[in-house]
Each structure stands twice: as structure tokens, then as C-alpha cells.
Amino acid sequence: MPVDILTVNNLDGGYEVFVGKRKVFVHAVDNVSLTLHENEVLGIAGESGCGKSTLAKMIYGAIIPPLVVRSGDIYITTRNSANLKLNRLSIDEIRKRIWWLEISYIPQNSMNVLNPLKRIKDQFLNVFKYHDIEIDKENFMKHLREMLNVMGLPPEVINAYPHQLSGGMRQRVVIALSLLFNPRIVIADEPTTAVDVVTQRTILSLIKGWRENNKSSLILISHDMSVHAYMDDRIAIMYAGNIVEIGNVFEVFKEPLHPYTKALIDSLIRKGDRTIRKGLMGQPPDLINPPPGCRFHPRCPFAMDICRVKEPPTIFLDKDRYVKCWLYVNTR
Amino acid sequence: MSEDSKLRIENVTKLYGYGLLGLKKFKALDNISMDIDLTKPRIVVLAGETGSGKTTLLRIIMGMVKPNIGRVFYKGRDIHKLRGSEAKWYRREVQPIFQDPYETFNPLRKIDSYFYDTIRNVVGIKNRGEAEHRIDESLRFVGLSLDRVKGKYPHEFSGGELQRISIARALLTHPKMLLADEPVSMLDATLRVGILNILKNLKEKLNMVIIYVTHDLSTAYYIGDDISIMYRGTLVEYGPISKVYQEPRHPYTYALLESILEPDPSIRERYPAIKPSSIELKEFLIPGCRYANRCPYAKEICWHTLPPPTNVDGVVVRCWKYLDYKQS
Questions:
Q1: pLDDT of residue B108
Q2: Which pLDDT band, with edges at 50, 70 and 90, does A324 fall under?
Q3: Minimal CA–CA distance to A31: which of A280, A322, A259, A327?
Q4: Half-sphere exposure of residue A217, counting CA atoms within 13 Å on the CB side?
Q5: Residue B289's Cα: distance from chain center in Å?
Q6: Where is the ABC transporter domain (chain B) (predicted)?
Q7: Residues forming beta bridges with residue B74, ordered by sequence position
Q8: Interface pTM (ipTM) of the complex?
Q9: B81: DSSP letter
Q10: Is the four-CA dihedral A290, A293, A296, A297 of positive or negative sign?
Q11: Nearest by Cα to B274 from A83, A147, A201
């Protein structure tokens, strides 16, 4: 029986922004529930603008306006088995107690987040200072060398400035930085979108290796389904702020249930494949003014009357697999 | 194949500066030669990683960047020496499609104004009715129409639609050749296929030659006929795509094809381990084969002399491994 270390219950939120003088709410995360087990990779897939990064920010606890959480809870079990309600902690408390120690975040575009004026070793030293951790120089260098080695980086990197490294190397430095204190949960937001295929493989396999050694959990956010196929244990498919389907990665790829997942998997082009494929017409809805009922119904080939008025219920097929679609209501 | 019916890239080298003042130079493109027959409709893929020089090469063909050494001939004419009406003729013959559809269009300009500009200035049709007919015709080819586009601004369209509009605009001049620079990399997976199918249609129905630049080898195979693989400014392999995919000759092509991640979880245990890359610039400065640093077969000669193009069963490869093959 897998142990849950993170539980998200009916999380609902988005961005409050002003358009001129009118206040509008961008409903980016709509009633999302999910759990993260110990020692697993949970992938979150979806098109651009479907709310996957917003969900990641909320789970990370970086709820800073204009991002607001309207309802729902995030529970996290820490290393010393305390159960914390993450969205009730103040941001300072989260900074000191949660970030880096319990949850780490590998940002999107991570090759550009290093301070260009500081040597790599000083950037690492800063993190220690930030958490008031005393460490003598010798131990620090040893730890640093070890960490860089895990990411396949040569020791010369320690004294280099960021501009002296290539994009892929900088990215690996940032990843090493976020894994510094062996966090139990790592959230990686599109860790490989800005790099090319060979570097992508390298980075993913390094993250994979580190995770398997440390028995940590990873939440991997990506729009690239091949990345999910390579990394995930379970995958959640997001569409316009909803998680429409979640399940074991093998099952979801083999037998997608939700019409959106089906279309998504059908539109993937495999190497050495030339059969004509059809994409999906139309475009994702505007999150300021989402369509009523199921948010996918304007593009759905199976849309029924009920889809246009009422939001579909969550239908559990087993503990870890559910789908949100009216098509499966009677097959339960 | 006569001179009049091909695009000939002849020993093109482009230098870029680096370092503090950019005084030191490295070869962003090193001695690239390639012929493309314009009489046969086909899609030629230029594939490579970031920094392989594929976009620079495309820009040189477009005439936006001048090579330091070497020339590009289109139907027998040096495209970097075209002036006046000849330059306009080249613009009509060859049209670009860019990577990011959101940035291609000025957000404050109406979409249809681009069409009227192109048709007036490049094609030279002044009659309004005739112009509208021509615009509608090319928009219909990509599944849109003038009525849907008229008077609208770029933000009123999705990325997929904008990319279709971009293609329609390029079609206005009835070009012989399209230069597409990563036309689908900014789009979502479900919309990507639609654009690729349009490119395929252009080749089949309008007999066009399309140069498709990409780093995504799965979409390359989906639409491509020929492929040239680039690595750090050198062209390492060039030939029919099915031959290259079935039996990659160059060690780099092999590594590249092996490292494509496929959207299928059942084969994930089969990927081989790979070695993390070192600093890019160092590889550009190797006088010999740029891949020598990572290549498992690297010999002494690879480090100091660039291998000459060798034809192996109809595929051109630049690798010392195959040199005995040619001589025998």
C-alpha cells in the first residue's frame, strides 16, 4: 500500500487581474484533487495555458497575488511525519521550513535563473546561508562536488561563472542546486523544454537516477508526452484547469478513456511512422469565461446534451485511476 | 539536372564572433555544399540540435544573412547579388514561414493588411477584386477564408490559426519554394498535425519544394523526403530520409536517432545510456570533425582534418569511417 506524502483536496483558484478597471478572474485551477505517493513520479500533462504551471505553484506554496486560492487544501507529510496544511502557513514559514528541505522546485527555463555575477560555488553557499545551516568549508566543498558529480558535471564548474557554461550545463547546475538538501518532493516545471534532444535525454536520466537513489517523489510537468512516457509512474491529464484523467502511465497510453486524452495520444507522431493523422480542431477555451458544463464539450466529438450544462462527475475505476467524463457514468 | 532548375549551395562558410568584443571568430557554418532539385516536389529536412547552424543556413538561403565564403545559386543566379526587379523575382519564388506565429505579426496591425501588402508590393496586382480573389484562394487552401480574417487583429486567433495564416500569406506569390523554420515547435501537439498535413498537401498539390528546419526527428520523418543532419556547423549526413533512418551511417546521426524519446512508455527501458556533453564552443573550435569529442570511433585523424563528403549507397556522409569505402 503506497503512502501518500502530499494530498490536494478540491483545490480551486486562479489569477485576479484587472482589465482596465474591470476585475476579472482567470479560473486556472478548477476543483483539482490528487495525491502523491511516496517514491513515485507523477506527471502532469496538458497543452499550454491549461493551468499545469499554476497548479505547480500552488502545490509549491508560492501563492503570491495575483495568484489566489479560493478553496481547497494542500496537506503535506514532512520528514518527521508532521502533517501540515500547506496553504495555511505564512509565506515566511514556508520559506524557512518547506522550500528546499521538503519541496524543491526546478523552474521552467532554468538555464537563465543563475546570478550572472556570482561563481557557481557562491550560489550554492547562498542556499546554505538562507537556511541558517552552518557548514565548514571542507564539508561544503565535499558535498558540492558530490552533488555536481550526481548531475554529471566536472569539478571545474565550481569556480566558473554561469556564462562560461553551456545551456545544458547551467540547467544541470540549477537542478543540482534544487536537490541540494535531498528534498522528499521535487516539482519540475518543464525541465527540458529549452534544450535539444540529446541534452534532454541526459537531464531526464540524471533526474531519474537521483530520484531512484533517494526514494523521493517527483511531480513532473510537461506538455511533451514522450517525456511522460519516459519518466512517469502515474500521469494526470489536464485540460482547461481540470484534471480530466489520471492513471498508471502504461494504462493511460494504452487505453485512454477521456476523449481529450484519446485525441492527444492519437495526434502524437512516433519515429518512423508516416500514417496520416488527424489533429484536434478548435482551440482551448478562454479561462476567464470557461464554457458551462464540461470544459471540453465544444471540441469533443462525443458531446451529449448533458455535457453542455453540467460538469461531469469524477468516476473512479480503481483507487488510482479516474476519469471526468459523462461517457463513463453508467459503466461504473 | 540543369543549372536552371536547382538550388545550389556552394561551399558556404559563415563566421560569427565570440569573446568579449567578438573579435575571435568561430565557424557557425563550415563549408556546406548541397544541391536541391526544384523540378521534383519534395520536402527537404534540415535537422540538428540547438546551435547546429540550421537556422543560419536557412537565413543564408533566404538572403537575409550573407555568407563569408561561398555562394548560393537559385536557378543559376547568385541570390546575394540580386538587385531591383531580380530581387523581387526571388521574393516571389521563395517565401519564408517563421517559428513563432505569435511574434510574426504586429499586434496593432490587422491581419488582412499583410495580405494586401504582399499582393501589391511583391506580386504586383493592383486591382482590388483580383487581389481579394487571390487572397481568398490561398486562405482557403489552409482551411480559412478572407471573410474570417478580414478586419481582425492577431490576438483574435489561436496559435494554430496564426500559423495557417502565415502559410497562406507565403502562398500568395505562388512560390516555387517554401522555407519553414520550425513551423510547429511553438504549437500544441493536437494542433501540430494539422499544420504538418498542410505542408504535405502543398508539396503534393502545388508541386512545391519545402525546406523544413526542425530539431524534432519524429515530425521530420512524418513529412520529409530527404534529410540533412547538421552538427556544430557541419553537414554530417545527407540523403533520402528512409535510408538515413533505417541505417544511420554517421555516429552522430546514430546517437541522435537513438536518443529520441517516443510517446510510448512500454519501450522506455530500451534507451541506451548517454554521455553528458561538454562545453559547446570547444566543439566548434575543433579543426577536424566536430563530433570527435563524443564519438566512440574517434581516431587521430578525426581531430585535425574535416572528413570529405563520401557517398555511401546514395547517402552522403562526412566521416572518416567510410573513407576506405570510396577508394576501394
A1: 92
A2: very high
A3: A322
A4: 24
A5: 22
A6: 7-257
A7: B7, B77
A8: 0.74
A9: G
A10: negative
A11: A201
* A43, A234 contact by CB (below 8 A): yes
Separation between Cα atoms, residue A329 and residue A327, nearest integer Å: 6
B158/A contact by beta carbon, under 8 A = yes
B20 contact A CB<8A: no
Task: Check B263 against A268: CB less than 8 A apart.
Answer: yes
pLDDT tens digit sequence for B196-230? 999 999 999 999 999 999 988 888 889 999 999 99
In chain A, residues with a C-beta closer than 8 Å to the C-beta of B49 are 196-199
Tell me the pairing of strands A67-77 and A83-85: antiparallel
Q: Is the dihedral of CA A86, A87, A88, A92 positive or negative?
A: positive
3-state secondary structure A70-113: EEEEEEEECCCCCEEEHHHCCHHHHHHHCECCCEEEECCCHHHC
Task: For residue B279, give how far its alpha carbon lies from the nearest alpha carbon of chain A (Å).
Answer: 6
Pick from B189, B109, B177, B187: which is nearest to B149 by CA? B109
Contact B277 A199 (CB under 8 A): yes
Q: How many residues does chain B have?
A: 328
Does the CB of A111 have a partner CB in chain B at under 8 Å? no
d(CA B153, CA B156): 6
- Please tell me whether the peptide bond between B307 and the residue prior to it is cis, using omega within 30 degrees of 0: no
Phi-psi region of A292 (alpha: psi -120 to 50; beta: other; left: phi over 0): beta
Smallest CA-to-CA distance from B253 within B321, B194, B198 is with B321
Nearest to A40 by CA among A269, A310, A274, A235: A235
User: CA–CA separation, A276 vs B44, rounded Å?
Assistant: 19
Reduce the DSSP state of residue B295 to 3 states and report it: coil
Instruction: Judge whether B239 is closer than 8 Å to chain A, CB to CB.
Output: no
Other CB atoms closer than 10 Å to residue A48's CB: what's the count? Answer: 13
Strands (DSSP E) found in A20-87: 22-37, 41-45, 67-77, 83-85
- Residues of chain A found within 8 Å of residue B50, distances taken between Cβ atoms: 167, 195-196
Residue-wise pLDDT tens digits, A145-159: 888 888 888 888 889
B256 in contact with chain A, both atoms CB, cutoff 8 A: yes
Cell of B295: 564519438
pLDDT single digits (tens) B71-123: 999 999 999 999 888 999 999 999 999 888 888 899 999 999 999 999 998 88
Quick check: A206 and B276 CB within 8 A?
yes
Q: How far is CA A69 from CA A19, A241, B90, B305, in A?
A: 20, 13, 56, 62
Q: Quote the cell numbers at residue B185.
A: 515547435
A212: chain B residues, CB-CB within 8 Å? none
Sequence length of chain A is 332
B220-258 exposure pattern, b = at least 16 Cβ within 10 A, e = fewer: bbbbbbbbbbbbbbbbbbbbbbebbbeebbbbbbebbbe
Which SS3 state, helix, strand or coil, does residue A201 take? helix
Distances (CA, A) of A80 to A6, A90, A253, B34, B82: 14, 20, 37, 64, 73
